Amino acid sequence: MISWLSGVVRDLDPSGVVVLDVNGVGYEVLVSMQTLVTLKLGEPAELQVHSYVREDQFTLFGFSSTQERALFRSLNKVSGVGAKTALNLMSGMNATDLMQAIENSDDIAIARTPGIGKKTAQRLILELRGKLVQTDTAGVTAEHNLKHDVKSALLNLGYKTAQVDKVLKTIDTSLGFEDMFRLALKAL
Questions:
Q1: How far apart are CA 3 and CA 61, in angstroms?
Q2: Domain with 42 in it: what CATH number?
Q3: Taking the mean position of all CA atoms in its chain, how far away is CA 26?
Q4: 8 Å CB contact between 69 and 50
Q5: Rg for the chain (alpha carbons), in Å?
Q6: Which of 152, 178, 171, 159 has its CA nearest to residue 46?
Q7: Where does a domain end: 37, 63, 89?
Q8: DSSP 8-state assignment for residue 130
């Protein structure tokens, strides 16, 4: 799976479709309006990616931070909320405001998002209230996500999980993705 992309923004569509040129390969990524406004045509960009795979489709959803990606994944797990609805929710509110609305049981604020009714907002609150704060503080740290991204990249190259886990235990997590990846490749 693809979990992170870094490249140059080649095309921006107001509907939330971005084409990111990564070393000559154009990746079409769906982004929320919150992420879209941070991107500029022809400029470098980094996106945290959620790969969505079904029998008949392979779609990439991009986010400006790991917190946004984690929130998207939590929203996507709620019954009746698919990937497109989750992205729509994140377009209507930034990640922090949406998490606060869920924690404060503010179904009216959530239902202001086009396409989201009061019942869907209440279902989100019922299923996610109390879980988002725990997730945010209990383990979805930048360090953990960085390690996960390096592990994912190495597994995609064909290395075995046991090998990768052993090597990642020895690598300094304060380094950036590229440095961690390079050191892991050397060790493998």
A1: 10
A2: 2.40.50.140
A3: 19
A4: yes
A5: 18
A6: 178
A7: 63
A8: T
